[in-house]
Amino acid sequence: MDIASRRCASYAHAFSHVKVFSYRDESSTYSPDNAAADRSNKYNNWLKAFVLDLLQRPKNVNAELIFAPLRRAVRIKDLSVANFLLPYLVLHVVIKGEEAEWLMIKEELYGAVFRVLDYLSRWIQAKQLSSSKLRGQDQAEAEDQIRKVTTLLESIPAKVVSNRAIQCRSYARALFYWEQHIRHAREKETDELQETRDMERLQEIYTQIDEPDGIEGISAHLHVLDIDQIILGHHVLLNYVEGMLGDRDTTGLLLPFATEASWATERWGALEKYTEMATSEAGEDFNVSVGKALLALRRDRDPMIFTSSVRALRRQIACSLSRSTTSSIGSFHDSMLKFHVLTELEMIAGTDSDDEIPRHQLIESLDRRLETIGAYLNDKQYLLGIRRAAMQRSSLRFEKENIASSWLTSARLARKGNAIHQSFNAVLHASKLGDDSAKIEHARLLWKEDQHRKAIQSLQGAIDSNAFISHNEMIKANVTVTDGSHQDQEKQQNLLEARAHLLLAKWLDIAGQTNSTALRAQYQHAVRTHSGWEKTHYYLGRHYNNLIESQKNLPPDRQDETYLSGEMATLVIANYLRSLTHGTKYVYQTLPRILTLWLDLGSQVHQKLDPKYGNSQDFVNRVTKVRKNNLDALHNRFKKYIPKMPAYIFYTALPQIVSRITHPNKEVNTFLQNIIFKVVSTHPQQSLWSLLAISTSTQKDRRMKGAEVLSKLNSDAPRSAGAGSLDMKALIRNGQSLTAEILKVCEVGDFPGQKTYRASITKDLQFQHKHTPSLLAVPIEAALTATLPTLTDKVTTHKAFSRDVITINGFEDEVLVLNSLAKPRRLTALGSNGQLYGLLCKPKDDLRKDQRLMEFNGMINRSLKRDAESSRRQLYIRTYAVTPLNEECGIIEWVDGLKTFRDILLNLYKPRGIHINYTEIAAYCEEAIKSDSKLPLFTEKVLGMFPPVFHHWFVQQFPEPSAWFAARLRYTRSCAVMSMVGTILGLGDRHTENILFEEGNGGTFHVDFNCLFDKGLTFAKPERVPFRLTHNMIDAMGMYGYEGPFRKSAELTLKLLRQHEETLMTILEAFVYDPTLDLMKKSDKDRKRRGEGSAADGTQSAQSVLDAIGRKVRGLLVGESVPLSVEGHVDELIKQATEPRHLAAMYIGWCSFF
C-alpha cells in the first residue's frame, strides 16, 4: 500500500463509529445498507466499492463515456487510481445528483479522507472567482453549484471533524474546525460553563502545535480556577505520572530521551544499555539510531559499521517522506534537521586524523552550518550535543578547545533563551576543559541575572590575572601550521582579550561606576588590544557620541568648548570611519551619523556663534577657528578613508547624501559630489535613479548640482570599471530620456471622475518606445537593494549586487489609471529576464519621505531577523521600492495580490445585505461621544449594524487548514509589528484603504505615509487611537482576539525598538532634519479629504519630533514622568486603540465601525 493509501486508512480507522462499506466482488453493486453489515473489511475494499458506486452514477453523456473505462481501471489497478478519482467523483455527484445521493455522500465523508473536504473548499474558492466574470444563465448555474457544495460542507458538524482530525494528528485541521464549532455555539448563546470547556479543548489542541503564544492567548480568556480545582488538577497530574511510571509500555516512549541524555552527558555505558533495550520498532526512532551510530564511532571498531548505519538511517528518513511532510518548510523542518545531523556526523567521523589543516577547515564549516539553522535555539542545542559526542569518539582526536568552544556556544544560546541553569552548566563544562573564554561567559550570566557589580568584579579579576593573555599564548603555542600570515594569527590571538576589555567598558558605562576619563581609557584599551576589530572602534565612537548627546541637553552657558568647536564630532566620525574600514555590521548606525555630524559641522563653520554660548570675542574667535581646523582635519581623514571604502557602503545612505547636494559649504559640497560620483560610477544601473532625480528637480540649484555630477561622469567615467562593459555616456543619455518619458506618463492624460481607466501608454500617455530597452535596473526592491558581506566575506572584495542585473526591456501598452485623486498610473515593465514587473507612477506626491521610511522599516526588519524570538515568529514589515523622480512624482513598486481592507469587508457585507449609511452612522457617533450613557449608541447600535466578518475572508481565501492557520498567524503578527512601529513614528490616517492584505499569505501591507509624527492629532477631528485595532481586525485574529500572538509580537517589537533606540534615533535624525523634506506640515490633500480649511498648520520643530519619538520609545506616556514596562506600554496602547470613545470620535472616512 502506498503512503497516501496508508494515511487514508488511518483516517478511516479514526472515524471508526461511522459505517464502513464492504466490497464483495467485482460485479457487486455498492449499497450503504449492505455495506454497514461488515465493519471488518479493509480500507482498500471500502475505497474501491465507494468509487465504483460513484462511477455508476454519471449525470451526463460525457460522464457516461469516460466512467466505463475508469471502472475497469479501478478494478485492476492499485488504490492510487481510486484515490485520485474520489474528490472529482464526489463533486460531480453533488452538483448533479439528487438529495438522497447528497445524504449518502455526507455519511461517507465522515469516514473519508480529509483531502475531499479540502478539494471541495478549494473548488468553491476557484468557482467564486470564475463566476464573478459570468453573466446570465451561466452565472445563475454557477451560483447554484456553489450553493449546493456549500450546503453539503456546512451540514457536516465542525465538532465531529475536529475530533476526528485530532485522532489523525492533523492539529491545524482540528483547530480550523473547532473554532468554527465555537463560533456556531456562540451564535446559539450557549452557557458560560460550556464555552469555558470549549476554550479548554481549544487550548489542548494548541498544545500539539508549535505556537505557545496561542496557548497564552486562550489562557487570558479562561476563568481563574479556585483552590479546589487547582488541587484536583494536581491530583490528576500525579495520577498520570504514577501511571506512566508503573506502565512498562512507556519504556519504548522514554528510550529516545534516555539515549539523548546519555550521549549529552557522555555516559557511553548507559547509551549502550539503552540502545540494546530498544526493540526493533523502538529502534526505528531517530535518537536511538543516532545513539547506535555514535557507539559505532569508537576508534577500535570498523569504520564501515558507522558508515553503513548512517546510510541506513538516511534511507529510513527518505522513505518516511511524503507529500504532506514536504509540502512546506515548516512540515519538512524535522526531516531537514535529521539530514543535517547525519551530514555532520559523517563530517566529524570522516576526516583524516593525520592531516591538521582539514580539521580547522571542518570547525569553520561546522560554525557556518550552525548559522544556517537560524533562530531555532532548541535545534542548535540538540545539534551541538551530538557534535560534542561525535568529537569525543571520533578518530580525528579533536582538541579540548574545540569541544570547549561548542560548550560555550551552547552557553550563549541558553543565555539568550533565558535558560540560565543550562547556560551555567555549559560554562562549567567549558571551564573544566581549560577555555578561559568561559570566564567572559560566566560574567555575562551574572550580568543577565542583574548581578551587575559581581559581573564587573568577575570580569575585572580575570583581566587583572592575565587570564586572556595566557590563553593567547596557549593558542600561539598550539599553532603548528602557518600560512605565512603572521598578522592574521595575531589578530585571532588577541581578539579574546579585546572582547574582555570592550565588555568591561560597556558594563562600566551602563552601570555608571567610573568617570568619563577612565571610561574613555577603557574603550581605548580595547581598541589598542585589537585594532582590526570593527566593534571596538564602533563602541569608542559611540561613547563620544553619547558625550555629544549629553552636551546637547545642557544649558548653552555650560556646554563644553570641545562640543561647540566640533572636536567631539570629529572623534565620533574618526572612530566610525575606522569601524567601516573593518566591517559593515554597524553601517546603518555609523554612516548616517557620520554624515549628519559632518554636514552640520560644515554648516556651522561660517556661521556666527550665538551670543548665548558666550559673549567673549576671544571665545567666539577661538571656537570659530577650531571649527575650521576640525573640518579641515576631517576632510583629510576623508581623503585617507573614502578611497579605501567600497562604494556599496555609501550606497546604503545615498538618499541622505543626495538630499544634501546643495550644501552651502564649498568643500563639503565637493566631497558630497565625489561620493556620489564614486557610487554611481561603481553601481550605475542601480544608483543612477537617485542622480537623475536631482537633474529633474523642480529646484534650480539642485538641478545645477545634479548636472555637474552627470557632466563629471560623462567625462571621467566613460566606461566604468564597476559597471563592466557599460558605456556610461550612453547609459546616462538613455536614463535621462527614459526619466523624462516616465514623468510625462505621470502628468499627461485626461481621466475625469472617480473611476478606473484602462489607457494606452502610447496613445493616451504619449510614451515613446524608442527610449527602451534601457540598461537601468528595474526599480524594484530585489534589484535595488545592496547586500552586505557576511562575517566571513571581505569588505573590499564583496559584490553588493548580482552580475545578472534585471534591466528594463520595455513596457506593455495597457496602463491602469487608478481612481484616486492623483490618478496614479500602473505600468507593466518587461524585465530583461522575461518577467513582468508592475510599477505605479504616482504624480503630485513627494515620495522621498516614503523612500526614507522604507529605509527605516528595512532597519527594523534587520533587527527582527537578528533577534531569536522575533525571527522564530517570522516578524517583519512588508517593504517595497520607492524611487522618486523629482519632488512631485515618482515610482512605487507594485505588489501583486493585494486587497484593501475596505474592499474585503464590503465584499463580505454585501451578500449579507449590509450597506453603509454614512450620514446615519456619523449622527450616531456624534451623539455617542457626548456622554458615557450615550456610548452604547456606538458600541451596540453602530457596531451592531456591522457584525465582525473579517474571519470569513481567511476561511474563504485559505480553505486548506494549515494554510489558513499560517495566514492568520502572519496577519496577526505583521499587524502587531506595524502597529508598534507606526505608534512610535506617530503614523496616522490608517483608514481602510491604507491597510491592505496579501491574498497569497494573509500578511498586512501599509501604504500612504503622509501622516507621520503625530500629525493626526492636529486634524479637525484628532486621531486618538495609536493604531487601527477595530472589532473586525480583532475577530479575525482568532478566538483569543488580541491576546496571544498579537500581544506577544507587539511586546517583542517594542522591546526591540527600545534595545535599538540609538540606531533608531540616528536614522530618524537624518530623516527629520533633511532640509529637502517638509515632514511636519499637513498637505492640501489631507485637508481636502477631511474638509478642513487651511488654518491648521500642524508644523512642528524637528527636535520636538525627535523628543516625542524618544519619549515613546522609552515608554513615557504624554504627561507622565515614570516610564512603563514594555508589557505595560503595550497593554496601554491596546486599551487606547480599542477604547469605544476614541473610535466613535474618529472622522467618518476612517470607518471605525469596520
Which key phrases capture this entry?
1154 residues, mainly alpha, three-stranded antiparallel beta sheet, globular, disordered N terminus
Molecular structure report:
By secondary structure, this protein is mostly helical. Among the domains are: 3-156, no CATH class; 532-645; 743-893, Phosphatidylinositol 3-kinase Catalytic Subunit, Chain A, domain 4, CATH 3.30.1010; 949-1140, Phosphatidylinositol 3-/4-kinase, catalytic domain (Phosphatidylinositol 3-kinase Catalytic Subunit, Chain A, Domain 5, Orthogonal Bundle), CATH 1.10.1070.11. Helix content is 62%, strand content 4%. The chain contains 54 helices and eleven strands. Strands 1, 2, 3, 4, 5, 6, 7 and 8 form an eight-stranded antiparallel β-sheet that branches. A three-stranded antiparallel β-sheet has the order 9-10-11. Strand 10 (995-998) and strand 11 (1004-1006) form a beta hairpin. The longest helix has 25 residues, at 617-641. It is globular. The model is unreliable at 1-41, 471-491 and 1082-1099 (pLDDT under 50).
